[in-house]
Amino acid sequence: MECLESQLKRAELFRGYEIVLEGIKRRKVKLVILANDASSKTKENINFFSEKYKIPLIIFGNIEKNSIAIGKKGRAVIGITDSRLADEIQKLIIGGES
Length: 98
Fold this sequence. Notes:
Blueprint: H1 2-10, E1 13-15, H2 17-25, E2 31-34, H3 40-52, E3 57-59, H4 63-70, E4 77-80, H5 83-93
Parallel strand pairs: 2-3
Antiparallel strand pairs: 1-4, 2-4
Helix pairs in contact: 2-3
């Protein structure tokens, strides 16, 4: 997991609600990670747009731990832009083939 955290800190990511939504709409986001403790409105909207644009969504961790992993405070939503990293994260969190 430490290796993944270092990759996340170096990766080009969309961090935060508005920026991730824009990335989803522009089809630049390959995977969305949403914190378990995000607000219900954030969960509802991110889920809607992820489904609409067919972007995989993983609800994982909490705001504090996910923020530490990317090196930014207070981020409930993370958009992964790199396809390989998105696949690696899905395999690690969900297991099996993504």
